[in-house]
Design brief:
85 residues, 4 helices, mainly alpha, single chain
């Protein structure tokens, strides 16, 4: 799954932060660093992402796994539909 980390990691970070902040609307989050995470300078962003992922490692890995499997099924479904057209 590491080759899919570029799209899995942001989804996972968002999921963990949404849970932590009790809101899917990041505008409601109290921590400005969390709100603007992907606008931060590269070093600060990487450090904060690592901190978020480490804060709930089990949830992080499970969420990445679920997203990966769901995406795999969606891709296979699209391929099957395109074959029928």
């Amino acid at each position: 799954m590491s080759e899919n980390n570029d799209w899995l990691e942001p989804k996972c970070v968002y999921k963990i932060l949404s849970k932590k902040n009790n809101s899917i609307n990041f505008g409601d989050w109290s921590d400005n660093t969390e709100k603007n995470l992907y606008s931060l300078d590269e070093d600060t962003k990487k450090a904060k992402i690592n901190e978020v992922l480490a804060s709930d490692k089990e949830e992080s890995e499970f969420f990445k796994f679920k997203q990966f499997i769901a995406d795999e099924h969606i891709q296979k479904g699209k391929e099957n539909l395109n074959k029928k057209v």
